[in-house]
Amino acid sequence: MSNSLTETAYYTRRAINWSILGVIGYILLRIFWGLFVAAYLAIFPPQAPPPNHAFGSLPPLTFPQQQASPAGQLIYQLQTIEGSVPAASPSANVYFMPKKGSNLLALSTAQAFAKRLGFATTPIPEPSNKNIYRFDDPANQLRHLWYDIVSTNFIVRYDFQQDTGLFLNSKVPSAQEARAEARNVLQTYGLYPDDFATGDVRVVFYKVSENKLVPVPSQSQADAVRVDFYRPNVAGTKIVTGTLSEGPISIVFSGSGNQKKRILHFSYAYWPIDYETSATYSLKTSTQAWQELQSGGGFLLQLPKSLLVTVRNVYLAYYDSVEPQTYLQPVFVFEGDDGFIAYVPAINPEYVEQTTN
């Protein structure tokens, strides 16, 4: 009997030892396999699927009207961290931006919106654009609303230059208060898009100088405060606009307690993006974009103070235009000294519609 128990204990210990060795071996095998796969992928990275160019030829990007500038005379020098133009992805997503179409109720919708904001419902056509109507405030001739009945974008403006007492004894809201008030305005009128809710919100204080709003560093010096709303990044890629400081949605508040004098400026330029409908497109190389900029191409958002421009940062971003665009497309962004910023369209020219002058 004792021999039988000894033999059982012996085989039990052997089984346990082998089990432990098996577990250790399995763990070591998993570790070595993971290291092997990681090393293999580092040496032989998987190839991304080729661009599908599913939208066909894309319309060229529309930038704001470029004022007279020394673009063709500028001399560029590159001083990036890499010492050269950093390589960019060979392809990128392009997103569909559905357009709003006009309908029979468009003008009625504009009139209803004007009434909610305290304007008269009599539409005054703008001679320069058949889609835009002006609405005036019968109780305050300094307030005006311009409304695009197709896009539903608009601008509200109060002519503060003609109201000399507006800024006397006024209390400009703090940055936190201004953000909260601006969000409340958007939510009250159903104007807060979902894709802006998680975007950047910036605040700038202003002082009136020679009938113009000039930025100042603090609330204590301010006569007004502006709140700008921006879209969040798309798939980790920054979105840039055609204005240096003003966001697509922007509200300027005075410190007046009179609600009709509270908003000095309210601009709303929202173009929806269909994030579920996209296509991949081949891009120019960053070197090609750099050469195009040096040759006088691209759009200069912020001009340099001298003809010698030092570029220190180059990256890809998406361009969100104030004008309607059918697709959200990438651009190369060049940033340099003295606030210099320039955009160069990134899509391979082979897949961009050619315009004729």
Mean pLDDT reading: 89
Tally of structural domains:
3
Helical residues, percent:
10-25%
Structural class of the helix and strand makeup? alpha+beta
How large, in whole angstroms, is the Cα Rg?
29 Å
Give the terminus-to-terminus CA distance.
106 Å
Low-confidence stretches: none
Name the strands of the widest sheet in spatial order: 3-4-5-6-12-11-9-7-8
Strand content: 25-35%
Number of helices: 6
- Helix and strand pattern: HEEHEEEEHHEEEEEHEEHEEEE
Oligomeric form of this entry? single chain
Biggest sheet, open or closed, and with what strands and sense? 9 strands, antiparallel
Count all strands and give the number: 17
Shape by Cα distribution: extended
Keywords:
extended, 9-stranded antiparallel beta sheet, alpha+beta, 8-stranded mixed beta sheet, single chain, 6 helices, 357 residues
What is the topological layout?
Elements: H1 2-43, E1 75-78, E2 91-96, H2 106-116, E3 124-126, E4 129-136, E5 143-148, E6 154-158, H3 175-188, H4 194-197, E7 201-209, E8 212-216, E9 224-229, E10 239-241, E11 249-254, H5 259-262, E12 263-268, E13 274-282, H6 286-294, E14 299-302, E15 308-320, E16 327-336, E17 341-345
Parallel strand pairs: 1-15, 10-15
Antiparallel strand pairs: 2-13, 2-16, 3-4, 4-5, 5-6, 6-12, 7-8, 7-9, 9-11, 11-12, 14-17, 15-16, 16-17
Description:
- This protein has 357 residues and is α+β, with helices and mostly antiparallel strands.
- The chain has three domains: 46 residues; 100 residues, no CATH class; 119 residues, no CATH class.
- 24% of the residues lie in helices and 30% in strands.
- The protein contains six helices and 17 strands.
- The strands form two sheets. Strands 3-4-5-6-12-11-9-7-8 form a nine-stranded antiparallel β-sheet. Strands 1, 2, 10, 13, 14, 15, 16 and 17 form an eight-stranded mixed β-sheet that branches.
- It is extended and about 105 Å long.
- The chain starts with a helix and ends in a 12-residue tail after the last strand.
- The mean pLDDT is 89.
